[in-house]
Amino acid sequence: MGDVIQFLRWQDIVDILLVSFIIYRTILLIRGTRAVQMLAGIAVLIVIYFGARELELLTLYWLLRTLLSSIFLIIIIVFQGDIRRALTQVGKTPFYKTYDDVLQNTIQVVVASARYLSRRRIGGLIVLERETGLRDYIESGHKVDAKLTTELLVSLFLPSSPLHDGGVIIHNNRIQTAGCLLPLTKNPYINKRYGTRHRAAIGLSEETDAVIVVISEETQEISMVQHGSITTVSDETALLNKLEEIFIPKDYQPHLWKNWFAK
Fold it and tell me: Are residues 211 and 231 in the same domain?
């Protein structure tokens, strides 16, 4: 044991910690997504491959060897969406960010609008942009570039509005665009009861870090979608709490910098 510790360099410790961190973050990233089932399938194929080699099942061994020889290319093709999302996560800034009343106002307007639309059985698809830019999707809609208000946001989803079928993208307390076309998820395990709006929300969340609020006109349900996972909230209070958990850290103290300068 002493010899092992003696030959263990500090570089080895850093190497082990970095690899462990990468594995941990990867597990968090794919947890709850279709990538888990696909990775399990690949693991089964690998086990069968070694079993075929030991049992000398030549045809099966040759077939699996041919398949697994291109396994890295297969993984890149199959998991291209997850890989793209992982790279955007890596590119996020690690530095502390400030939060103010503008962000709180955005959350409150979104919650109030979702409550209004739900009670009147009006469908809605509200996208809250975060660190991953949504320019490609913004360009697919109609530019609004107006200050976010409950009245304006609700009016965009009214059946009489020509933009009510698409998504509305919000960033920096402004409505950037409306009537946006969002990518539909290709996940075959999505519940069949979810319609186009929910599938578009899930599809966008699989490719970006955006948070999407969906209002169902059929069931009046309000759902929140993030990282390919959809959660139905019981009421507007639950939605408010969930959005604050995501956008406003618990240890954040509003206007702390103002108090500091006032000393």
Answer: yes
Closest CA to 126 of 198, 75, 195, 76: 198
For helices 58-68 and 71-78, what crossing angle results, to 10°? 60
- The answer to whether residues 73 and 132 belong to one domain is no
Beta bridge pairs of residue 222: 215, 233
Alpha-carbon span 171 to 22, nearest angstrom = 30
- In this structure, the answer to whether residues 156 and 206 fall within a common structural domain is yes
Same domain? 238 vs 108: yes
Total structural domains in the chain? 2
> Residues 20, 142: one domain?
no
Q: Is the dihedral of CA 225, 189, 133, 163 positive or negative?
A: negative
Question: What is 11-27 written as a DSSP string?
Answer: HHHHHHHHHHHHHHHHH
Tell whether 258 is covered by a domain: no
Domain that holds residue 62: 2-90
In a domain, 75, yes or no: yes
Q: What is the pTM of this model?
A: 0.62
Is 207:183 a contact under the CB 8 Å cutoff?
yes
Task: Return per-residue pLDDT of the chain as tens, 263 residues.
Answer: 555 555 677 788 888 888 888 877 777 666 655 566 677 788 888 889 889 888 888 888 888 888 888 777 877 776 666 666 666 655 554 444 445 567 888 999 999 999 999 999 999 999 999 877 788 788 888 999 999 999 999 999 999 988 888 899 998 889 999 999 999 998 888 888 888 999 999 999 988 889 999 999 999 999 999 988 899 998 888 999 999 888 876 655 444 434 433 33
